[in-house]
């Protein structure tokens, strides 16, 4: 069995390679519609249906000002809308507009096709096992960041 340092080095090397390559490829497929950051923000909002900029800042581990700049660009393009909470006017929810959903769906189909082209090299059990393990790591990392 390999020593922990060797395993961690393998993990860091693979993660770096995959992250760089997939970010580059996502950039290529969505560049006509949005930036990778904008795609990721829209992906998150689409999954939640609506959320606040504070939730986004926490989810992406960035400052609220960074999220606000991205959101403002998306609002200016008519892709996201801001809606005040009726009970607490301080809360502003973000959601995709109809146009935003169309643009997001188009970009997401391109990303799905690109990622699928890699997953076809694995059988269903390998894909399920990998994704399950990766989701477990994501949960652990998420829990660790709250400490």
Please render the helix and strand layout as text.
Blueprint: H1 4-30, H2 36-48, H3 53-60, H4 64-76, E1 80-84, E2 92-96, H5 98-119, H6 124-144
Antiparallel strand pairs: 1-2
Describe this structure in words.
- With 147 residues, this protein is mainly α.
- It has one domain: Winged helix-like DNA-binding domain superfamily/Winged helix DNA-binding domain (Arc Repressor Mutant, subunit A, Orthogonal Bundle).
- The protein has 6 helices and 2 strands, in the order ααααββαα.
- A two-stranded antiparallel ribbon has the order 1-2.
- α3 crosses α4.
- The longest helix has 27 residues.
- The protein is globular.
| CATH class descriptor name | Mainly Alpha
User: What is the fourth-level CATH superfamily?
Assistant: Winged helix-like DNA-binding domain superfamily/Winged helix DNA-binding domain
Overall pLDDT metric: 92
Main sheet: which strands, in order across? Answer: 1-2
Q: Architecture in CATH?
A: Orthogonal Bundle
Treating each run of at least 4 consecutive H or I residues as one helix, how many helices? 6
Amino- and carboxy-terminal Cα gap: 31 Å
Largest sheet: 2 strands, antiparallel
User: What would the CATH topology be?
Assistant: Arc Repressor Mutant, subunit A
SSE-based structural type: mainly alpha
Q: Please give the number of β-strands.
A: 2
Would you list the SSEs in sequence order as H and E? HHHHEEHH
Overall, the morphology is globular
What is the strand content? 5-15%
Total count of domains = 1
- Oligomerization state: single chain
Low-confidence stretches: none
């Amino acid at each position: 069995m390999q020593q922990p340092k060797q395993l961690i080095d393998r993990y860091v090397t693979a993660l770096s390679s995959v992250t760089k390559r997939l970010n580059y490829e996502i950039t290529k497929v969505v560049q006509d519609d949005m930036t990778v950051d904008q795609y990721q923000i829209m992906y998150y909002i689409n999954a939640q249906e609506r959320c606040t900029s504070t939730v986004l800042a926490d989810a992406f581990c960035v400052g609220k000002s960074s999220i606000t700049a991205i959101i403002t660009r998306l609002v200016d393009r008519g892709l996201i809308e801001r809606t005040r909470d009726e009970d607490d006017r301080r809360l502003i929810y973000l959601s995709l507009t109809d146009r935003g959903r169309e643009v997001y769906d188009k970009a997401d189909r391109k990303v799905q096709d690109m990622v699928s082209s890699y997953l076809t090299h694995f059988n269903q059990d390998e894909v399920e096992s990998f994704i399950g393990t990766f989701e477990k790591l994501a949960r652990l990392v998420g829990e660790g960041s709250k400490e």
